[in-house]
Write a structure and sequence with these properties.
By secondary structure, the protein is an alpha/beta fold. The chain has 12 helices and 7 strands. The radius of gyration is 21 Å and the shape is globular.
Length: about 290
């Protein structure tokens, strides 16, 4: 197992009662984003399903920049030990910086992949993953690793968005690709959607194949609303997480024309309906070993 150290000392109660936060502290302000708007709806559903027990070892698979990792660590309390794993090195540094500011001393961050985790067998009593297991290269292997590092009776709670996510966008995108003479690229687009957003049945089969018992599945929906297609394409998270994969589907020479037409059609749709509303259905899976 890779050795890591807690990022901060655990606060004593006397320290806690004597401490104050200065809202004008620039370091505090830089740390104040532990609830990203995209991942918040998924994560809030996940947190509702966790069995909160003191003095346990917990793991967040695909911890990103720290949500829900830091929230789980704080809710479990300083007698628990919580580890986050993610291949994104810069995000790990961000977590450490936030943990230092908030003096969350029961957190460790490990750079690594879910398919090959550097932890002992039967080590964790709780594993969470917030829209993380659907973004690994091999979900089956990642779930097998989750099973390996789970202690008997451990709980696994994870969220994943469903295939109909942003269907309003993908319908327009597919129509424009057909009109541009790129219908042969549609199977690749459908395969991309299926790989990132498996069906509920597919996840349930994977969970059982990894020898977890499925306790509960709850489906929820939220909406991502924009003023226009122009606003959608310029949103920071769209540019970070979605736009680059989308650019692989038009022919290289047609990228600008295709996205220009998609933006125009989305603008028309938004104008007709008083805004652009993208539906985000997802499921939260609660399991145990």
């Amino acid at each position: 197992m890779k050795k890591t150290r807690p990022v901060a000392a655990v606060l004593s109660l006397d320290d806690l009662l004597g401490e104050t936060f200065d809202p004008d502290d620039h370091e505090l302000v830089r740390a104040f984003d532990e609830l990203p708007l995209w991942s918040a709806p998924f994560g809030l559903a996940l947190l509702d399903k966790v069995r909160w027990r003191p003095s346990i070892r917990a793991l967040d698979v695909g911890c990103g920049t720290g949500f829900p990792l830091l929230e789980v660590a704080q809710r479990l309390g300083p007698d628990s030990h919580v580890v986050g794993i993610d291949p994104w090195a810069a995000a790990g540094e961000r977590i450490r910086q936030k943990a230092r500011v908030y003096r969350i001393g029961n957190v460790e961050v490990v750079q690594g992949v879910a398919e090959q985790m550097p932890f002992p067998d039967a080590h964790f009593q709780l594993i969470v993953s917030n829209n993380g297991l659907n973004n690994v290269n091999n979900p089956e292997q990642a779930l097998a690793e989750c099973a390996r590092v789970s202690a008997p009776g451990a709980q696994l709670v994870f969220t994943a968005n469903l295939p109909e996510t942003m269907q309003e966008f993908y319908d327009v995108f597919a129509d424009v690709l057909r009109a541009a003479g790129s219908a042969d690229r549609l199977p690749g687009l459908l395969a991309h959607i299926a790989s990132k957003r498996p069906t509920r049945d597919a996840w349930e089969r994977r969970v059982r194949a990894a020898e977890f018992e499925l306790d509960e599945v709850e489906e929820r929906t939220f909406f991502w609303r924009f003023a226009s297609g122009r606003a959608l394409f310029r949103h920071g998270f769209i540019r970070l997480a979605f736009l680059q994969p989308w650019k692989a589907f038009p022919a290289p020479a047609d990228i600008s024309a295709v996205f220009g037409e998609v933006e125009r059609r989305l603008d028309v749709l938004a104008n007709e309906k008083g805004g652009l509303s993208l539906r985000i259905p997802f499921a939260c899976y609660s399991c145990h070993r």
